Amino acid sequence: MRNKILWLVAALSSATASPALAHYPYCTCALEDGKVACKGGFSDGTGAEGVTLDVISYDEQILVPGKFGADSVVRFDKPSGEFYVLFDAGPGHVVEVDWRDIDGLTP
Predict the structure, then answer these.
(1) Which domain CATH number covers 76?
(2) Which positions carry the signal peptide feature in this UniProt record (predicted)?
């Protein structure tokens, strides 16, 4: 009888548990007024103020270290050579944008 009660409690607990609400990061970059501007945030509508956004060369050198400002934007001069932008808000919350995918830049 005790096992049936425990099973019933477990079944009811899992049925009433609310699912975790996931929020996913996003980052879009475009050429604006001669600089690259990257805007970041999360799918739940929150911004990315203070979150790391680094510009990294293909040989893994950090070219431009940065953090999103109050407007959730990072602006920087286009580096010479190939690079990518890394928005890193922690495990499972990483976005990479290759320079070829930045609006306004041509390979």
Answers:
(1) 2.60.40
(2) 1-22
